[in-house]
TrEMBL record:
Residue window of the full protein shown: 616 to 829 of 1141
Lineage, top ranks: Bacteria, Bacillati, Actinomycetota, Actinomycetes, Propionibacteriales
Function: Catalyzes the transfer of a methyl group from methyl-cobalamin to homocysteine, yielding enzyme-bound cob(I)alamin and methionine. Subsequently, remethylates the cofactor using methyltetrahydrofolate.
Binding locations of methylcob(III)alamin: G97, D98, V99, H100, D101, S145, A202
Domain of life of the organism encoding this protein: Bacteria
Domain named B12-binding N-terminal: residues: 1-87
Name of the protein in question: Methionine synthase
Domain B12-binding: 87-214
Recorded family membership: Belongs to the vitamin-B12 dependent methionine synthase family.
Amino acid sequence: LPLGERLQRRIVDADDKGLAQDLDEALATKPALDIVNEDLLAGMKTVGELFGSGQMQLPFVLASAEVMKKSVAHLEPHMEKSDTEGKGTIVLATVKGDVHDIGKNLVDIILTNNGYTVVNLGIKQPVGTIIEAAVAHNADAIGMSGLLVKSTVVMKDNLLELNAKGLIDKPVLLGGAALTRAYVEQDLNNLFEGEVRYARDAFEGLSLMDQVMA
Ligand code: B1M
């Protein structure tokens, strides 16, 4: 198989034997982030489709996710870093009830490499913890990630809690596969007294942070 397809297959088959060599070979031909976006994420997409159609069982999805994480960890030192630092602080979390963190951690890497301080709280974070961290770190923004349909409801409840606590001065960034731009920027923006924005991917997350800090 050509290298790109081989990397995709490695994610789908959770095959990490010789993974580092393949990644190094790919690094010789293109930037680390292109490998993530073009090859590894294509593999994860297939995993999602196979799981969604009942052709792949959960333990295999988990194994694929582990190989994805290993790959990103291998590539991370090769990602471009800006030399500007201290551009702003964001508290980042996967919301309550949701364990998906690959996308959130990519957002962390992209923002950190571009000069932001990221307070990454991890997965399954209740809104109270997110609020405490945002206040304690005097964050410029709050980022919430969630992939489950039920997480879109959790995010809505979290925004209502931010209203109730009067914490409406920090823009909120939302991302994750179950969200749509319309839901976030119309429905949720109507009920949140501050500003809430949708990030389709980690790069949009970065450009939104750049807008917030401008
Ligand atoms: Co789960 N899972 N999973 N899963 N899983 C999905 C999300 C699902 C769509 C699969 C499917 O059915 N086709 C489905 C959700 C269905 C729904 O809600 N309607 C699903 C399900 C059902 C479940 C369980 C309920 C399964 C079960 O237990 N029966 C369970 C849930 C557990 C829980 O959360 N309580 C579960 C568990 C798991 C694993 C643990 C096995 C594993 C996660 C491992 C991990 O993350 N550490 C897993 C995986 C890997 C997936 C799929 C296959 C891949 C997700 C992924 O990592 N994608 C996923 C299928 C899919 O998404 N199509 C699926 C790659 C990642 C880079 O993309 O996270 O979308 P993503 O991030 C993107 C953007 O969304 C954006 O940037 C990233 C790219 O640049 N982004 C942000 C994300 N967050 C952002 C935040 C931002 C900005 C941008 O700013 C704050």
